[in-house]
Amino acid sequence: MVVSFLAILFLLIVLVIAVVGFKAVIMQGRSPADAGTEKCSICLARHPLDRLVARQVGDHRLLYFCRQCIAALGEDLSRVPRGEEAPQKDTGR
Q: Which of 17, 20, 28, 66 is in Cβ range 3.0-4.6 Å of 40 for a Cys bridge?
């Protein structure tokens, strides 16, 4: 009797852990307060989606950039002499 009670208790605990874990996977670790926000791909700070520039890389991946990081990249690019720009990658087309 005691063994069956402990077995049922163990199964309930495993079920609760599975449900909580599944819910965490579905939410991808985000709280409801983070809805409508994304991290900047450079500085990793959270910003509202309407304040970010999104660029798609490949078929699936989206990169988000904030205004401050774009400005910093622009400043870095303005310091590069024109004759030393990186060569374009050949796509083979």
A: 66
